[in-house]
Design brief:
The complex is a heterodimer of chains A (351) and B (227). Helices cover 44% and strands 16% of the residues of chain A. Chain A has 351 residues and is α/β, with parallel strands linked by helices. Chain A has one domain (2-342): TIM Barrel (Alpha-Beta Barrel), CATH 3.20.20. In chain A, the strands form two sheets. In chain A, strands 1-2-3-5-8-9-10-12 form an eight-stranded parallel barrel, surrounded by eight helices. Chain A has a two-stranded antiparallel ribbon with strand order 6-7. In chain A, helix 1 (23-39) links the parallel strand 1 (2-7) and strand 2. The radius of gyration of chain A is 19 Å and the shape is globular. In chain B, helix 1 runs parallel beside helix 6 (136-142). Chain B has a single domain, classed as Rossmann fold, CATH 3.40.50. Chain B has an eight-stranded mixed beta sheet, sandwiched between helices. Chain B is of the alpha/beta class. Classes of the chains: A alpha/beta (351), B alpha/beta (227).
């Protein structure tokens, strides 16, 4: 089992003055977090894509390029790249550049994203959602497979023997398909033989076993063996020394983020009741002591067979020192417990 | 309701398959229609809704079903075979999410609820708004037998009182307490951003929330939709 972290960036507050970080400082904070994650032996750091004041890490590849030069082992990915509103040629070039700078540690997780901020920002029409995603995923995979690249479609100009560089030394970039649980997405990942990354932020994660089953059976039906399939899981989570105290402290960060998101999307703020349920064994929020979190990851693995679990920790205006402490505990305390049970996961991603 | 019903579902997504699981568990016959190829849909149903069958014909699904449920994304609801809905009981479980679907011109700034807009696509159908205000996780996890005091409520709104009674019995059969939420126009109080949307409420709590003054239950006007 690989363990890791993902983030959209956050405006950390100073616990003494209460002042929150600027978006520029938030970017530097992320770099510090990636460096620590590498130092404590975590295997993955993902940077997502939102375009909001609260979650300002809009340019994952640029941050990861910075991280590439100050880290040694950790794999560096997007979680996720909102592919529908990107040019796949540019996405490939940027992550291939991160791959070059990091000696082969770059990954792309291509998804649709859960928000639509990027559509007006980059001038795309939401009515084209399906077609944009389908075609752009096809183009990205074509670029990853072929050199030079020839491609025809409707969402951008065609390519005729195009040279797209740099090329990864290994020949290919690791490209995951990111999904929040839509059955079609699991089937698509299986059909294409891609590794699949599930973002699970509510409900009972063990129920995703039906989706991982659908993913693996779709892969088998397209001629890919189970050995070729890979499942990773990203959930909210936070590790502190003491379970109950950690949940009490993190509750406010979770509430602030979900209440403001709910305001925009039309769902109610979370109740403490639902938070307590979701942070209990079986729930989707992996918040607690190192022993609790290790047990819960091991338990979920028995349902999903995932090879990587990564946590989004920096909700709300979580102070940077708390974010860093959680990363440290994930690496120094949770990881040995999980590995004692499940073993290390050397396998990366099939090319 | 005489026990076993035939339930037709448009949309084998997160919501459609969750409703199918509930209905199959309650002993109903379930048919699901989707746009994917036959083998793909079969695999999807085998894994996510065992016991549910693939619809033999999308155009006659409503005619063959005692109850038909629309569980497609809002943006794709225009493609449904509305003419085949005449005289049939149809549950509109759709939600309009401007923050996720984008602003749909047909719905932007209109005073009435989305169910009225959907119903206008075939006024001869027996429209019921229900099953829209809780998440698919909740459907899986909150179904309880009728004797359970923690049972959660699901609202039923319709202008057709027989259809409303029929759907209420179905809701009860799959593990939730039905709540009479008034006419189809009153369904506006069940939409995203309302006081009851996404909330875990018992029947008594739900009924109390519904009799609140209209202003308190109006959908929140979002800055992006108003702009």
């Amino acid at each position: 089992m690989q363990l890791g972290v993902y983030s959209f960036g956050s405006l950390a507050r100073d616990p003494d003055s209460g002042r929150v970080a600027t978006s520029a400082q938030a970017t530097r904070n992320l770099l510090e977090a990636v460096k620590l994650a590498d130092d404590v032996g975590l295997e993955y750091f993902g940077i997502g894509e939102h375009h909001t004041r609260e979650m300002p890490a809009s340019a994952a590849a640029t941050i990861l390029a910075g991280a590439a030069t100050i880290t040694r082992r950790i794999r560096l990915g997007s979680s996720v790249t909102v592919l529908s509103t990107e040019d796949p040629v540019r996405v490939f070039q940027q992550f291939a550049t991160v791959d070059s700078l990091s000696n082969g540690r770059a990954e792309i997780t291509a998804g649709r994203g859960s928000s639509i901020e990027s559509f007006p920002l980059f001038g795309y029409n939401l009515q084209d959602y399906e077609r944009l995603y389908e075609e752009k995923l096809d183009l990205l995979l074509t670029i990853n497979r072929e050199d030079p690249v020839t491609w025809m479609g409707t969402v951008r100009a065609g390519l005729d023997e195009a040279v797209i560089v740099p090329r990864p030394d290994s020949g290919h970039l690791a490209i995951w398909l990111g999904t929040g649980g839509n059955p079609q997405s699991s089937m698509r990942a299986g059909r294409l033989g891609l590794p699949v990354a599930y973002g699970i932020i509510g409900g009972i994660p063990a129920r995703f076993a039906a989706l991982t089953d659908l993913y693996r059976r779709s892969a088998n039906a397209s001629g890919f063996s189970n050995e070729h399939t890979r499942v990773s899981v990203g959930t909210p989570g936070f590790v502190g020394d003491d379970g109950p105290a950690t949940r009490d402290a993190w509750w406010q960060e979770w509430f602030d983020t979900m209440a403001s998101l709910g305001q925009i999307r039309g769902f109610p703020p979370p109740s403490r009741n639902s938070f307590d349920r979701d942070t209990s064994p079986g729930g989707a929020l992996f918040v607690g002591s190192p022993e609790e979190i290790a047990d819960r990851i091991i338990e979920l693995h028995s349902h999903l067979g995932h090879m990587r679990h990564f946590l989004q920790m920096d909700f709300g205006t979580l102070p940077q020192r708390d974010f860093l402490r959680s990363i440290e505990l994930l690496g120094t305390e949770v990881k040995p417990l999980v590995e004692a049970e499940l073993g290390a996961e050397p396998a990366v991603v099939p090319a | 309701m005489s026990g076993t019903l035939t339930i037709g579902i448009f949309g084998p997504g997160k919501v459609g398959t969750a409703i199918a699981r509930l209905a199959v568990a309650a002993g109903h016959r379930v048919e699901i229609a989707g746009s994917q190829r036959q083998e793909s849909l079969q695999l999807l149903l085998d894994v996510l809704a065992p016991g549910a069958a693939q619809s033999r014909s999308v155009g006659t699904l409503a005619a063959r079903s005692d109850l038909t449920i629309l569980a497609v994304p809002f943006g794709r609801s225009v493609d449904l075979p509305y003419t085949s809905f005449s005289g049939r009981i149809i549950i509109d479980a759709l939600n309009y999410w401007p923050a996720i679907d984008g602003v749909i011109a047909e719905l932007d700034g209109i005073p009435q609820g989305t169910s009225e807009v959907i119903a206008a696509r075939n006024p001869a159908a027996r429209w019921v708004k229900s099953l829209n205000h809780l998440g698919y996780h909740d459907m899986d996890e909150h179904a309880r037998p009728s004797s359970d005091p923690t049972r959660r409520a699901i609202a039923v709104a319709s202008d057709d009182s027989d259809a409303k009674r029929f759907v209420s019995k179905f809701i009860d059969s799959v593990g939730f307490d039905p709540v009479d939420a008034g006419s189809l126009a009153d369904g506006i109080h069940l939409q995203t951003g309302t006081a009851v949307f996404g909330r875990e409420l018992s029947k008594a709590e739900f009924e109390r929330m519904l009799v609140r003054p209209v202003s308190a239950a109006e959908p929140a006007r979002r800055a992006d939709a108003a702009a």
